[in-house]
Amino acid sequence: MKFFLPALLITVAMAAISLFVGVSEVSLLAIVSGQADEKMLMVLAASRLPRTLALILAGAGMAVAGTIMQMLSRNRFVEPSTAGTVESASLGMLAVLLLAPGLPVMLKMLVASAFALAGTGLFLAILRKVPLRSPVLVPLIGLMLGGVINACTTFFAYRYDLMQAMGAWTSGDFSTVLRGRYEVLWVACALTVAAYIAADRFTVAGMGEDFSTNLGLNYGRVVALGLVIVSMVTASVVVTAGILPFIGLIVPNLVSMIMGDRLRHTLPWIALTGAALVLVCDIVGRVVNAPYEIPVGSVLGIVGSIFFLNMLLRRRFRAA
Amino acid sequence: MQREASRSSGTVLLVIGVIAVASMVAFMTLGARGSWSFILPFRGVKLFSLVLVAYAIAVSTVLFQTITNNRILTPSIMGFDWLYMLLQTILVFTLGAATTSAIEPRLLFVIEVAAMTGFSLVLYRFLFSGSVRELHLLILIGVVFGTLFRSLAGLLQRLIDPNEFVVLQDRLFASFNTVDSNLLVISTVLIGLTSVAAFKIFHTLDVMALGRETAVSLGVDHRRITMIVLALVTVLVSISTALVGPVTFFGLLVANLAYILMPTAKHRHVLPAAVLVAIICLVGGQTILERLFAFDTALSIVIEFAGGLFFILYLLRGAHR
Amino acid sequence: MIEIRDISKSYGSSVVVDNVTAALPKGGITSIIGPNGAGKSTLLSMIARLMPMDRGTVLVDGLDIARTSGDVLAKRLSILRQDNHMTARLTVRDLVAFGRYPYNKGRPTPQDQDHINQALAYLGLEEFAERFLDELSGGQRQRAFVAMVLCQDTDYMLFDEPLNNLDIRHAVSMMKLLRNAARDFGKTVVVVLHDVNFASCYSDHIIVMRDGKLFLQGKPREIIRPETLEDIYGCPFEVHDLGGDLISVYYG
Question: Hey, is the C-beta of B166 within 8 angstroms of any chain A C-beta?
Fold first, then answer.
């Protein structure tokens, strides 16, 4: 725990950098010395601050969601984008756009959550049908399920000329986050806190159904709670910024390698690392090709797939 | 027994051959309005490229499954398509859009195919030399490689000046609707060459299909043949990707349909069957979707959907055994 | 006392546990023995409510396990199954501490700490306490799981083949530990055993399962006889009395 404070400070510094990087100039000096003009303050309040907050909430939420999924499926390779959750949430978004485009964003999020819940439930149901659970078979099925759901989404998007709209929410882009358009992420924040309160239950559930029952835990109820948290966090992130792939894979595995899986102890670290990782990737995406932006989703796609490959290849060497 | 099997193989081939021809005729004639002198060459070019693609994907998948000795791995699932896209993007990125536009497209294509062959041999050799024993792990590694290549290509495309990129996009990145007709002749030549090479090792391939240990003990230079086939497969994948873009599950579907339809596993029978099935699916599917339902771009999506479902079912069935 | 009344379990057409009625006395060690596929593990899992039964009831000190809430039972009865594969990375101390979960719901009190340290000491795990389970040998891991069950401090403790993965020295010390727990703390230990001689030397009571049915039950002296064992396992047995312990020999 003694390293938590420095880590927190680093993340805060990252958030501060995130506030002051961008096309229109916002300088810390000017703000502190009271020389900031109105435009600068407006950019800060309406665009930069919401964006930075959104990055932190989304990163922390997705990392915690990934952890919960790994505990519930007892598999290190599972996270919302390798279990059909993200793709189902996108399908839900498309359904809203087609059938009830006027819904307020909170309701859109709830519909997307319902789809995500159904998709993840389907994934877990398929897993129960696989008696020999080869650990790498699990994410493989999840990825393919995601592909199938995605094909459905693309089909309807083509049919109704919504490809462009779909591209916007699948890219994982925070450049369009403004005040008034990210607030649904506070739901993700609340759920992340809820996950922390229930941390011990998720750890026990991660020990398996038999252990949970032996310790007097209602396993089914914990799974249900976990699924709701994961679906709603994923949906609120997809609704505001789009898909953030692999955070739920990278962060929980890194933290677990170093300090294990007692979630009461590790969840704050997971949330913090998730936020920091997304902040860094977003800053990189903004700086590399300025004035153009690279969506944080693209950066994460690369970082995440390299991390994933590394996990798989290390497994190969360990088996050999 | 032997004779009977080959006789019924002949019948099956004949039947699917007739269906393939019928779907080609339907593709050329259905819903034609206006002058034939315009329609025939226009549709003819498109039909020809679809047939080339069907051939390339079917043959590359069957050969690939032979050397990897299973029926679920395909070059596309292992990320070959996206590797080609990535190399294409890297080329544009390093040479610059202006230079790339100035290069003769056919020359560019040959350079890309050569680069692709080199890279894929380096990259995939260690995976298929038997160092990864667990099939599911191998597939997952391939799938994640695909994701990596796709993300890298996406990133580079964004790093290219967006204005330039729009100009290049149409020329470089094909789909079922914008088939790149510049490359038809050179593709045909390349396909011809690879087919001749594949034909020369036909009988060895049947031995390879028995598995590595058996093939080696029967005196086959397993490693050498694996490398040759991998190179042939790479060329074929490059052709189909250059013509219509990445199609992840098409090869999986047609190869497995061919295995189901044919009573023997001999390449002499399976390869033509796979090609014919591919033509039926691609040309027939395109005809039905385009002419009957007016779904323009849906074919690749339908393939992804059906292929993904098939893949999951296959995995589940395999897990039960 | 654990009362088992008419319980049955089948998968499809194969009946795994067939209408078993038995009473497991309070205190001491009760062993369940029998050939492979006799339904021993299934019976144990059903008693511990890990597996739903098709018919019948199980009462633990008069509480119907089907109707009693999980956390109430978790303070009276604990079970350790075999093959405890765990993906979660926990230290030995973390794992043992979860034995107190039914009492503290994850907020350990100083008293809980005493329990945890005692359990660690009892199994000689102090030096491994801060290690992760995946860094231990199979035998050490097995002892860590047993420590967790001890830490749960229930009146009834059920073990499914706890000697798996243990070498002879650790197997003997495990059985001694269970016997001490029964004698010193008045616990009731129910254990599925493969090794007839361990069952003979350490049990107060033996239950024999065969073909899903309760075949016999009684004191070790009533069960460990050549003709009975031949009946149970279907191969020739000799039984020798060595210093008061009945040792069977079945190597042909």
Answer: no
